[in-house]
Design brief:
mainly alpha; Amino acid/polyamine transporter I; 19 helices; globular
Length: about 450
């Protein structure tokens, strides 16, 4: 069986790789930010999220096919380099590192108020404490990180499953459950509350809440069975996690009137209040803090491993290749943590603009990276003649088209133009750097 040709140890089982992927997906965006989606989409959230899920399934299928073809190439960044050349690998790799650093920076900023709400202590204590905790966990060993991440991911999955179970029980049998709800049901006002156009405009945001599954290809570099690990994430985890997203948000709309959803407040907290669960807000705050910590943990792992991979091809500082006795690229982990804290520092200096900028940049960078991955698959299969290659090339082309249209739809919105300008400028800088570092 082929494994990635790196010095990293292969200690992660397919189950742990899957839990790592889940850790990068379910974050504060679902638990808190989804209020804005629901107010714009109403019950159109179901077909729109279905489109987003299908697009992510197609993307993960493409990444799984690439891994199966050449597992020794490493993560999907290595696959891009192998198919499109050194410059493309440089650009995609650094874009992916910056994506996770921007994401982690926004998560660090979010820790402060959540920790203060939950404990009453200064938010800075929570920010420093959880950043230190994730750093130490990542420095111990890949398996120690993965085991901790699995526990956090299972907590998030369990919370969503429990919410769905309690919501269905209270909606169908309020007298039996002892939980009371207004049973709003499907109303005309909740079907298309802000119009078709406003609902369609949320599709890029919905896609963003599902990005992160590609971490499976990064974690698979440390798995004895990378092909099975990535295939597991593509075939099972994306549909399962996507279902939890759709079912939980649709259930909220059957419990809470659309007008009762307030921006900045979690729709899950509002639903729990309507069901007469007074401690719901506190429980949810703890769960969101777990989700943020989990995402921060995964961001540090994913970015540091790709930084290590870039160092192997001389696209990052050479000391990022240095491994500890337990097989951890310690310098890459430390450099990544510094970059993440730098992004968080900028956000703290400009609380609103910095936070929004970090989120917007991360959303655009990951989609550009997906475009590189699909282009690599199309290029690889351009002369292939094996059975099924034609359908795989079509799948990659359709996925490329889907993400291209998503980026264009963002560019044509007033709020999205600055986001596009920032991300395109970042990609242009990376292209210039790639040109001068790979002139031969």
């Amino acid at each position: 069986m082929s494994t990635p040709s790196s010095g990293l140890r292969h200690t992660l089982s397919p189950r742990l790789v899957g839990m790592i992927a889940v850790g990068g997906v379910i974050g504060a965006g679902l638990f808190v930010g989804s209020t804005s989606f629901l107010r714009q989409t109403g019950f159109l959230i179901i077909p729109l999220y279905t489109i987003a899920i299908l697009l992510m399934i197609a993307q993960m299928r493409t990444l799984a096919h690439m891994t199966a073809h050449k597992p020794e190439a490493g993560s999907f960044i290595g696959q891009i380099r192998n198919a499109l050349g050194a410059r493309a690998g440089f650009i995609a790799g650094w874009a992916y590192v910056l994506y996770w650093c921007a994401t982690a920076g926004s998560e660090i900023i979010a820790i402060g108020p959540l920790f203060n709400q939950l404990t009453g202590l200064p938010g800075t204590i929570g920010m420093v404490g959880l950043v230190a905790l994730t750093l130490v966990t990542n420095l111990i060993s890949a398996r120690a990180y993965a085991s901790g991440e699995a526990a956090l991911s299972l907590t998030k999955l369990g919370a969503l499953t429990l919410f769905i179970a309690v919501g269905v029980l209270s909606w169908l049998w309020p007298s039996l459950s002892g939980i009371h709800t207004s049973n709003v049901g499907i109303t005309t006002a909740s079907l298309v509350p802000a119009g078709i156009g406003a609902a369609l405009a949320t599709l890029p945001l919905l896609i963003q809440t599902l990005t992160g599954f590609e971490i499976a290809t990064v974690a698979a570099m440390e798995s004895p069975d990378p092909v099975r690990s990535v295939s597991h994430a593509a075939r099972r985890l994306v549909p399962q996690v996507g279902f939890l997203h759709v079912a939980s948000l649709a259930l909220v709309l059957t419990i809470v009137p659309i007008t009762a959803l307030q921006p900045g407040h979690s729709p899950f907290t509002t639903a729990l209040s309507h069901m007469g669960i007074p401690v719901g807000a506190r429980i949810l705050t703890a769960i969101v803090l777990v989700a943020v910590t989990s995402c921060l943990n995964s961001a540090l792992f994913a970015a540091s491993r790709v930084l290590y991979e870039l160092a192997e091809t001389r696209d990052a500082p050479a000391n990022c290749r240095v491994l500890s006795a337990s097989g951890v690229p310690t310098r890459a982990v430390l450099y990544t943590a510094i970059l993440e804290c730098a992004v968080a520092g900028l956000g703290i200096l400009s609380p609103h603009d910095g936070y929004i900028m970090a989120l917007s940049l991360s959303a655009m960078l990951i989609m550009f990276t997906y475009l590189f991955a699909n282009a690599a698959q199309i290029r690889r299969l351009s002369t292939a003649t094996s059975p099924g290659d034609a359908s795989r090339r079509i799948l990659a082309a359709l996925t490329f088209l889907g993400f291209s249209l998503t980026l264009l739809s963002i560019a044509f919105t007033p709020a999205g133009r600055n986001d596009c300008l920032l991300s395109v400028s970042t990609m242009a800088i990376l292209w210039i750097l790639a040109y001068f570092t790979h002139r031969r």
